[in-house]
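Why does residue order matter? Because the sequence determines the fold. Keep that principle in mind as you read this record.
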Amino acid sequence: MATPQSVLKEIFGYDTFRPLQREIIDNVLARRDTLAVMPTGGGKSLCYQIPALLFDGLTVVVSPLIALMKDQVEQLRAVGVPALFLNSSLPVEEYVANMAQVRTGDAKLLYVAPETLLTPRLFALLADMPIDCLTIDEAHCISEWGHDFRPDYRQLTDARRRFPSAVCLALTATATPRVRSDIISSLGFSQSDTFVAGFNRENLYIEVVPKTNPAAQTARFLERFKDQSGIIYCFSRKQVDELADFLAGRGYSARPYHAGLEDDTRRCNQEAFIRDDVQIIVATIAFGMGINKPNVRFVLHYDLPKSIEGYYQEIGRAGRDGLPAHCLLLYSYGDVAKLRYFIAEKEGVEHQVAMQHLDAIVRFAEDEVTCRRKPLLEYFGETYDAWSCDNCDNCTAEAAQQIDITIPAQKFLSCVKRTGERFGAVHVVDVLVGSKRERVLQLGHDRLSTYGIGGDLSKKQWMHLGRQMVQMGYLNQDAEYRTLSLTSKAYDVLKNRLPIMGRLQEDEQRQSKGAREADVEYDRTLFALLRAGRKELADKAGVPPYVIFSDRALAEMAAYFPQSKERLLDISGVGHVKAQQHGETFLAIIREYCREHSIPEGLKAINRVKNDTGRRYMAVGEAFNEGETVPSLMDQYQVKAATILNHLARYAAAGHKLRRADDLLPLISATAEQQESAFAAFDELGTDFLKPVFDRLEGSVSYDALSALRLCYLSRLDGRSDEA
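Structure:
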């Protein structure tokens, strides 16, 4: 008898479920209505596809995304699953033929748009059909508090009433706690049947840089991704067309995508991207919804997104194969002003929601200290406790040296007070630098004592300082009008002349170390040969290359060198149907390559994609055990000390022994008494997180010092276990 596990392996070719997939599938099979919130690329589709193959009747999947329907149906048919879709893109003859197949019970899954499902014709078609499951994809569209509210989604409650015997599964990747509550209420779900997977996409390198010369910045960025797939998001159609022309004129394989293009042109450009005939799509946010292209290696935001939800969903289209991908956001305050102009035209709740969304994305973009993942995940109600993700610009940038900024900070705070706490940062900075702008003169602010006292810094530096004052809690910033006002902390600083430590921005941009290296070690030449073979098969079959096999599967083949069908079935993503259809083609390429290079099967088994040995922390840990010092490792990898200490802590946490690290003690800025107190706290509280230890010591020992002390502590534990 078929089980979820057997379907996962035999049909889809995977050995294990991703987090929460099995629990959600079991809940659906038990016919309990379910809300599942899983990150983009987290495996939502299998949560209804596997139950669909185990139920006797039909599974109806509601999606607003025509591209997703086509994509999913192609992939399901490739593994032998009978699936169909009905939407406005189909010719009349094909639409009627698909309806006939549904009527005769020849389909296990039927994909429909919400407006299609709600028509009398579809209700009549499905009235006498055994509907076992109603799946609502992109369920955040139900909520007016979401970033993509669609009124027709609210009417899906009527569809639920018409299919009372069908279990209902609602899926989304971007739902805050408030949006989740709204979905549950609208669909009448039980709170106990909600599953929320972690939002952290560890393989995505997240970076925000000031937008200065965006076209040139984009061209420099693309030099790092030769012949690799990526998406560039722009705010307007005009910007899309101009940037696509700019890139094409410089030899890049790039095409535009937006709603203003002819349908055939837009569809052609999308298909070319999906099939790897074009490497780069320059698009408005209309692109990418539901596109399950797994090998997108970068997403670049040319303009500021409207919300955290939109940003998270868009970067989620990168690295869906689990391999490293880079997400770059170009940020300027001009983009904020542009979005605020359009929001001003909205009214009521719509205006309120849009301003809340904009405020959240601005805070995220302007934070130059906190790990990017922390505010991103907290926005979705998830706590991120790690002290460093080691995979964003704020965590990998060289640590900025803090200096005494008391005088310029006092000037800025005083100017906010003198102008009446009724203006935003731009006006305050104009007063500080002695601007002759008409508004400054009309308000008489050229006669204030703070007028012109900031000539020693540039406008850019003052704006950066103002953002620091907000982040450090000295200033409040109104969410809608961006006006600044002093906090009690600021009054305390001004009254008692307390020192303020921070940094002044230099003209040059921060030097980020960029995304971490790929976690996968594989033979690049063989990978290229397998990729070419895949492209040839895909073109003959008229499907995207990833429908044949994903990049991850090819990388694993190029790492493990399988030369028999049995060994090929061990590769992640290779099921029986695909092995039968395409296995011999890829095995022939591998065998020929291995014969030419005298490579035995299984030579690189230790470097399999799912193995940890290819990860940098392993290399760092092994080098440290062989006698390398922290400073030498910093030079070797060009990272700060905290990053090396993080790698070593991960190495120890993975169960590997560390040599005695007491040679770090003289370098740690903590007294001997503080060091012993820290060791005692680690004994009691454990070493997984530093914050409990930091709090226990009442902040007397810095996080950097605690990172090093934790390393010493772990190495001492290893020494004690050896003695025992």
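Residues 507-520, 603-614, 720-724 have pLDDT under 50 and may be disordered.
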